[in-house]
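Minutes, project check-in

Agenda point 3 was the complex the collaborators sent over. CS summarized: two entities, 222 residues total, and the question is how they sit relative to each other. Sequences were read into the notes so everyone works from the same version.
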Amino acid sequence: TQLLEQSPQFLSIQEGENLTVYCNSSSVFSSLQWYRQEPGEGPVLLVTVVTGGEVKKLKRLTFQFGDARKDSSLHITAAQPGDTGLYLCETGNQFYFGTGTSLTVIP
Amino acid sequence: EAQVTQNPRYLITVTGKKLTVTCSQNMNHEYMSWYRQDPGLGLRQIYYSMNVEVTDKGDVPEGYKVSRKEKRNFPLILESPSPNQTSLYFCASSLSWGENNSPLHFGNGTRLTVT
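CS then shared the predicted structure for the full assembly.
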């Protein structure tokens, strides 16, 4: 049983399109973190969300923490090839990871 | 520069030949851990350490050993590697465990192949 379910598992889109990836759980978390992993490298932190309903923006990336603190989403506006990578969510204080969403942005 | 350093980056070995993957962090972090990453299975925690001389099993500890004699170092030891331990391994550290807003900092990975 996976503590954090991420969807979709794979996503391939054209440059300029918008997309949303999801991180869902049946458990409540005090915080949740999103990472991006590029090929050949370790994951790098993008953002931490702490408050239910919180929305954080990082340039073209918008992160939302569900009101019940059981789920989160990542929305990318006008995707670029540099956004290509594996996106991982992680429970903020227990270090469990979801299986990830592998995003490919085609020029 | 604050970083987590793993060595080696690539390792090919044979079944049964003991090996050690080193991990060092220069951020004075209390928490360190090892993960393996396999297609379709995501990042799975092998062992973790909340401080010097304190280590504990993660989700997939079988076939691995660790030690934490110093704060900065957390080596991963495979006493008798087997082909099912072929994987991409990551070491990570964090300021502390169980605290919000204390993210993991990862090394660049070690790709291990056991034949």
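Noted in discussion: The mean pLDDT of chain A is 92.
Follow-up: revisit at the next meeting once the mutant set is ready.
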